[in-house]
Structures are given as C-alpha cells and as structure tokens.
Amino acid sequence: MTDPELAARAPLTKERVLRAAIVLADEGGIEALTMRRLAEALGAEAMSLYYHVSGKDGVLDGIAEVVAQEISEAAGQIREQGSWKATARARILAAREVLLRHQWAPGVLASRSQPVPAVLGYHDALVGLMRAGGLSYDLIHHGLHALGSRAIGFSQELFDPGAGPVQPDQLTQLAAALPHLAGMLAEVAHDDPESTLGWCDDQTEFEFGLDLILDGLDRARVR
Amino acid sequence: MTDPELAARAPLTKERVLRAAIVLADEGGIEALTMRRLAEALGAEAMSLYYHVSGKDGVLDGIAEVVAQEISEAAGQIREQGSWKATARARILAAREVLLRHQWAPGVLASRSQPVPAVLGYHDALVGLMRAGGLSYDLIHHGLHALGSRAIGFSQELFDPGAGPVQPDQLTQLAAALPHLAGMLAEVAHDDPESTLGWCDDQTEFEFGLDLILDGLDRARVR
DNA sequence: ACCTGAACACCGTTCAAGT
DNA sequence: ACCTGAACACCGTTCAAGT
Predict the structure, then answer these.
(1) What kind and span of H or E run contains A144?
(2) SS in 3 state form for chain B?
(3) Within 10 A of A220 (CB to CB), how many other CB atoms are there?
(4) Is residue A212 in some structural domain?
(5) Is there a domain that residue A223 lies in?
(6) CB contact under 8 A, A212 and B208
(7) Residue contact A109–B159, C-beta within 8 A
(8) Which nucleotides on strand C sit less than 7 A from a protein beta carbon?
C-alpha cells in the first residue's frame, strides 16, 4: 500500500483493458491489437489480461460492445425530424461519425459469433422509428438487410479508385485496357478538379447510397 | 528423373500454389490459410513457396486476382437482357454465385493495397453497360460506390438474426429489452413458418437490396 | 533454377506458481 | 483476489545452404 513500486500502476479492470484495446485498434488497425501489446500498453504482462477477459475473443466481444454503445448513444442524441426518413438518415450519419473513429469496428462486429447486445439495441430503435413512420415489419426487415453495415455508417468498398487524383498520362494508359472506367474517370475528375480527396468523396458517396436505399424504402411504403 | 522420390511430387508453380490456397480458404476460412499449411497441402516446405510468390501478401494478391477473374468470366456468360438494369442484375447475381463459393473474397479484395486488375475489368464492363443504358458517368460513379461490395454479390451483415428459427419463449424474453425487434421478428417469422433457413433468406434479401439500388439508379437516369 | 533447415521475432494460451 | 514466468504450439520471414 505504501510501496511505490506497487502503487505505480492502477490495477487492471475489464473497463481499462477494453479502453486500451480500442486505443490500440484506432491507432494501428485491428492487427495492431495483440494480447502482448495490449498488456504492455497497460504496464502489465500478457497473462494478467486473462484474469479480466476471457482471452482475445473476450477482448473483441468487449470492444465491439463498447463501440456499439457509443454508436447507440450518438444516435440517441438525434431528435425527431420531419419524417422517419430524415430521422433515420440523421441517426445513421451520427453513427457514422463514431464509426470513422473506429474503422475496425464493422469487421469486428461481423466476426462475432454471438449478436452484440448494443447493436441489437441500435437496430431496435431503428425498427421502432421505421414502424412509426408507417413501414410494415416485412418492409423494415428487408430494409435492415438492404442497409447491412450501412445502418451503422459503413460501406465496404472493393477498391479505392480515389487513392489519389488521376493523372492525364495514367488515363491514356488506363483507356486501352479499361475504356469505360477511364471515360468515367476523365469526366468525373474534370467535373471536380478541386477535390483534394481525389475524385471520390467518401461522405458524399455514403450519403448518396444511403439516400438511394431510404428513398426506395419510403417509396415501397403503403400510404 | 528416374528417382521415384523426386518424381513423387509435381513441381511447384505459382498457379498450383494459388489453387491450393483457394481450396484452403474455401474449406477452412481465410484464417486456415497459412504459409505452413499451404506448403503442407502441396507436399513442400513453407520456404519453398517464397520462390513462386512474394510472401503471404503475394498469395493474397494472387488468389484475389484468380477469384476476380472467375467472377468476371461468370458475368461475361450473361447475355444482354431487355434493359441495362436487367443485364446488370443478372451479371451481379452470376458474380454472387461465384462469391458464395469463396466467401473470404470480399475481405481479401478490400484488404489489397493495390487495385486487383480483374476487379477493375469487371467494373469496367459494368460501367459500359450502365453508360449504354443511358446513365451519366456521374450517376454511374455514384452508383458504383452505392453498390460497393454488392456489385460482386456480397453484402456485409452486422449480425445474423436468422441463425436459427425464433422460439416463442425467446420472443417473450426479447420483447422486454428489444420490443420493436421482437415485434418485427414475431410477424416475419409467422409469415413464413416453413422457412428452413430461419426467418432470413440471404438470397431474397440480397436481391431486394440490389433491386432497391438498381431501381433507384434507373429512376435517377435522365430520360 | 528450385527447394530446404535452422533460426528469429512474433502470436495466443495453459499451467503452475507467486504475493 | 490478482498477477506473473516459463513453456507450448503456432505464425511469417530471413538467410545461408543444399541439389
């Protein structure tokens, strides 16, 4: 108790372990999160973690739940808008802001063998919102699947064509093998030459896809 | 040459290595694909692989390209339908059939630091199809982002509410904490009590989401 | 040209032991 | 109750060596 060596480090708790794990994943991606590095970040040995969490899967379950709670809370701050669609849109964009700070989250959530409680809670609120907006349970069910991870603000891209601005000489090379893609790129890049993000703005594209789905669901609603 | 010991195993080639890697990933998931197990499946030592591929990332790049080619070829078999939308739909569903045999593919494709050539080729054809259908390059660009991994037949789900049929007693438990989800489940499960897949049919849900996006894009087209 | 063995720096985890 | 050291079965990879 009075020994400075023992008092030097706060005792481990499950909460401290999970918070440190999230910091590691945020900063170095999910592959930076190892039991050994996590322990080191906490000033402990790897084996000490096992007293507070049930192995690495326990850590992943835990951080999934913490982030899902954060998403739920952010969405909960959104007040009712003029329509179910506007409210759902605002809630999902609020969720996305959280997710942008935890980009590893969709993969971890999808990899859990048991449903993550706070994710269910988030979707429960979404179902309630859509039901109150006049959508049938059947349509809502299809809608949740159609949204998939987009419901929490994430859309999986297969390649990043906007890794950098397209150079004219790259375009001519591209045109031979991929004429349609090159044609599209040339025009889209020309329309927005100022874009510092390259020619794709993630946020704009996310909102476009989200609106496409929400609009489609609203149109399918029986009025 | 006449020594049976030496003749016992076909020499390694990049193609054989990649084919074996795909079999491993198909059968045991992407985490079953390790350099050591891959070598073992080929009757060689782990270090021998490095002569044919540039490490594990080279294997991942390689299998990503092979599967993307398979997807491209499957889509290429589809002949023109009555509209761009019908053709795109049929091509994407053909891609999905390939993907269902290689469920690890979306994750691997998304994890590549360089674009996978055959994925670009597949998207190039899709762009051409949409352009011929009267969509502007700008709309096509948004459309590709809106589709994301759905363009090759994959939709990321955050949880699998259809892991099994919902039991009545589970529903009452659920209803307390998640009233809206429970209400939806009760109705959807009731509507289709025969479903052996639980209450969610992946294929149906995939097609619903796909049509929502394709219909939305077609509607946004200037006619 | 093609393949390998030994070795290194990592993983997650078990188990017996410390305080 | 809480933490640790040694050890085990795995990883990917480098490097020098074999044929």
Answers:
(1) helix A137-147
(2) CCCHHHHCCCCCCHHHHHHHHHHHHHHHCHHHCCHHHHHHHCCCCHHHHCCCCCHHHHHHHHHHHHHHHHHHHHHHCCCCCCCHHHHHHHHHHHHHHHHHHCCCHHHHHHHCCCCCHHHHHHHHHHHHHHHHCCCCHHHHHHHHHHHHHHHHCCCCCCCCCCCCCCCHHHHHHHHHHCHHHHHHHHHHHHHCCCCCCCCCCHHHHHHHHHHHHHHHHHHHCCC
(3) 15
(4) no
(5) no
(6) no
(7) yes
(8) 2-6, 10-16
- Establish if A215 belongs to a structural domain: no
Task: Considering only CA atoms, name the residue closest to the C1' of nucleotide C14.
Answer: A47
| pLDDT tens-place string over residues B93-152 | 999 999 999 999 999 999 999 999 999 999 999 999 999 999 999 999 999 999 999 999
Domain count, chain B: 1
Domain-embedded: residue B41:
yes
Whether B142 and A177 lie within 8 Å, measured CB to CB = no
Residue A44: give the domain boundaries. Answer: 1-53
- A195 near B CB under 8 A: no
Instruction: Say which CATH number the domain at B27 has.
Output: 1.10.10.60
A192 in B contact zone (CB under 8 Å): no
B139-190 residue pLDDT tens: 999 999 999 999 999 999 887 654 555 667 777 887 889 999 999 988 887 7
> Looking at the predicted structure, is the pLDDT value of residue A166 above 80?
no
Closest-CA residue of B relative to A125 is: B180
Return the pLDDT at B3.
37
